[in-house]
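Checklist before submission:
- one chain only
- standard amino acids only
- sequence pasted in full

Submission:
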Amino acid sequence: MLTDDGLQDGLVVLLAGTQIQAVVAADDARVAQAHTRVDLGGATLLPGFIDIQVNGGGGVLFNNARDPQALATIAAAHRRY
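Returned file contents:
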């Protein structure tokens, strides 16, 4: 898992619905109570990371249109997320 301290092994993300509740050591007592476990098979997890880089939205690309109306269209397309 990638944390503020770099890559760490032996950590578990505890969720409530779709929200992160805690990042704990794998031997934490709360892990035993978890209802669902997902083995990532050696993949790297980046909890809470959101890739906010966008190239456009709503059928408009920044590289084709760089004006206020294009920005408004793109923003409206992403607003629901």
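Reviewer check: The beta strands are 2-3, 6-7, 11-16, 19-25, 56-57, 60-61.
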